[in-house]
Amino acid sequence: MGIRLGCIADDFTGATDLANNLVRAGMRVVQTINTPAEPPSGLAADAVVVALKSRTIPAADAVAQSLEALAWLRAAGAEQICFKYCSTFDSTSDGNIGPVAEALLDALGADFTVAAPAFPDNGRTVYKGHLFVGDELLSESGMRDHPLTPMTDANLVRVLQAQSRGKVGLVDHAVVAAGPDAVRERFSALRADGVSLSIVDSLTTGDLVRIGPALAELPLVTGGSGIALGLPANWGITPSAEAASLPAASGRAAILSGSVSTATNGQVQRAIRAGVPSFAVEPLRIAAGEPVVAEALAFADRHLSAGPVLVYSTAAPEAVRSVQERLGASEAGALVEHALAEVARGLIEREVRRLVVAGGETSGAVVQALGVDQLRIGAQIDPGVPWCAAALPGGETLHITLKSGNFGTPDFFTKAWESLR
Ligand SMILES: Nc1ncnc2c1ncn2[C@@H]1O[C@H](COP(=O)(O)OP(=O)(O)OP(=O)(O)O)[C@@H](O)[C@H]1O
Ligand SMILES: O=C(O)[C@@H](O)C(=O)CO
């Protein structure tokens, strides 16, 4: 039997976030890093999440990579496809949410899908098409300063329309609250009006679960990880603790943080205050050719035997902006990602087997550098952030968690270890 749900995620932390919600809803989930080169075989899973790093690449490349993932997932027997992007709708005016969603619709021969980024467990809600992060509109949240995808408009109908060929509509909260039949009716009305992509309001987890049955008929659904909460029940799958079990963890521990999000800035400061030995990676020093990676690893050598160490490039928005003005945003990003990926490799050589990574782009760079191609999803540390187990190329197990920038409580970097046994 093939898999039920095939998922394509546009970044690596987002993929584990989605996998985490599917596991919590009872699905057995395998996450692959990129589209596997081999055709699917022997997958003991209800869902596969293909993690891409396509959020900030040119739209045409994101489309090509997503279509490749789609072909693999269809070969694995996927009965429905889910395209996962950020709960803060991270994108630019060129995409990549609209272009990828439309290309997937075309490839599936479908004419309509939803765009439902809400993840109320993490404070992301959508009302009248406007995205809120906690109590703030998206455009007034820390996301307005994001280095790669600054979000300056909270009206998602407008944001998605700007990056889509087709017409964008809205399923508003009154319809969602009225239940799946009302949602189905609204889908039909939107279709009749020529709408191909529709933002869906959701204020609570209950809203996301309630729309679940209405999504069963769509070949493609798109959204944040919250959309996963209502899908497994469409196959009669119910929550089970077994879905989240991982092998026992051991080995040295480290934190690598390349996220510049508001939450991560707080978490780094908190870890430093808590006495975690910490090394700051400075982009301008890397650009000047200074041996920053070697220094970070020498620092790790001095501290690893006593407990977790933190290597971070995380900085406040003004500092990030000033680096970007000097180096260019994507050049600075690439430079830091490369350096942190090199540090990750060095840490594995130093017997680190428990690793916290913060930031979606950073996680992508680290996981690829480590040669990890598949993750098993374990228990949740905080909403959207599970521990995962991966086989290193030598066969040893690495326990790793990929934390989205804005996820996790302020003490995440010190408490994460407690939920790993
Ligand atoms: N001090 C810095 N100056 C400039 N750029 C930085 C700095 N530190 C990190 N970066 C870059 O900023 C980007 C941060 O993106 P990343 O996705 O890793 O984190 P995030 O955006 O905070 O988290 P998420 O995408 O999970 O919400 C990366 O490309 C990273 O290399
Ligand atoms: O949806 C989210 O907020 C996260 O999974 C994510 O994608 C952040 O990069």
Automatic annotation (TrEMBL):
Keyword Kinase belongs to the record: yes
Similarity remark: Belongs to the four-carbon acid sugar kinase family.
Catalysis performed (reactions): 3-dehydro-D-erythronate + ATP = 3-dehydro-4-O-phospho-D-erythronate + ADP + H(+); 3-dehydro-L-erythronate + ATP = 3-dehydro-4-O-phospho-L-erythronate + ADP + H(+)
Occurrences of domain Four-carbon acid sugar kinase nucleotide binding (ranges): 254-413
Matching InterPro entries: 4-carb_acid_sugar_kinase_N, 4-carb_acid_sugar_kinase_N_sf, NBD_C, NBD_C_sf, OtnK
Keyword Calcium appears in the UniProt entry: no
Domain of life: Bacteria
Transmembrane intervals: none
EC number annotated for this UniProt entry: 2.7.1.217
Four-carbon acid sugar kinase N-terminal domain boundaries: 5-230
Single GO MF descriptor: kinase activity
Gene3D superfamilies reported in the protein's UniProt record: Four-carbon acid sugar kinase, nucleotide binding domain (3.40.980.20), Putative sugar-binding, N-terminal domain (3.40.50.10840)
Keywords: ATP-binding, Carbohydrate metabolism, Kinase, Nucleotide-binding, Transferase
Protein name per its UniProtKB record: 3-oxo-tetronate kinase
Functional note: Catalyzes the ATP-dependent phosphorylation of 3-oxo-tetronate to 3-oxo-tetronate 4-phosphate.
